């Protein structure tokens, strides 16, 4: 996990806190690479508690949402937990319109999310 371009990670207790580094997650190649980096956290590094921090993300495409759903499924197979935090109101509305707020636990801040694990 040394060549991370799209995420930075910090482990707090046994929770892998992932900061998404791209402001706009729309380009197919970047979404593909982001997926590889996120999936490796579960499949190779073995994390089963993930917190995705969206504080730096201003926009994401539906293809990016597809990667998040795939990540959710990979975590669920391991009986793990995936939570999201620090999502902008526009992105939160997108999650709501697509009923993804029923799938994902979305917390207002990283501190709130960490406390909820």
Structure description:
This protein has 4 helices and 7 strands; from the N terminus they run E-E-E-H-E-E-H-E-H-E-H. The chain has helices at 28-43, 62-77, 89-97, 110-116; strands at 7-12, 15-20, 24-25, 49-53, 59-60, 81-85, 105-107. With 117 residues, it is an alpha/beta fold. The chain has one domain (7-116): 2-Layer Sandwich (Transcription Regulator spoIIAA). The chain is globular, with a radius of gyration of 13 Å. Helix content is 41%, strand content 25%.
Layout of secondary structure:
Blueprint: E1 7-12, E2 15-20, E3 24-25, H1 28-43, E4 49-53, E5 59-60, H2 62-77, E6 81-85, H3 89-97, E7 105-107, H4 110-116
Parallel strand pairs: 2-4, 3-5, 4-6, 6-7
Antiparallel strand pairs: 1-2
Helix pairs in contact: 1-2
Say how many strands there are.
7
Structural class: alpha/beta
Would you state the CATH class?
Alpha Beta
CATH topology: Transcription Regulator spoIIAA
Our count of helices gives 4
* Widest sheet, order of strands: 1-2-4-6-7
Helix percent reads 40-55%
Report Rg.
13 Å
Main β-sheet: number of strands, strand sense, barrel status?
5 strands, mixed
């Amino acid at each position: 996990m040394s060549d991370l371009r799209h995420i930075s990670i910090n482990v707090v207790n046994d929770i892998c806190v992932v900061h998404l580094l791209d402001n706009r997650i729309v380009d197919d190649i970047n979404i593909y690479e982001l997926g590889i980096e996120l999936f490796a956290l579960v499949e190779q590094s073995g994390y089963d508690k993930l917190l995705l921090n969206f504080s730096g993300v201003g926009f994401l495409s539906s293809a990016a949402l597809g990667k998040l759903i795939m990540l959710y499924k990979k975590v669920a197979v391991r009986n793990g937990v995936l939570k999201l935090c620090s999502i902008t109101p526009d992105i939160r509305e997108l999650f709501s319109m697509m009923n993804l707020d029923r799938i994902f636990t979305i917390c207002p801040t990283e501190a709130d999310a960490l406390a909820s694990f």
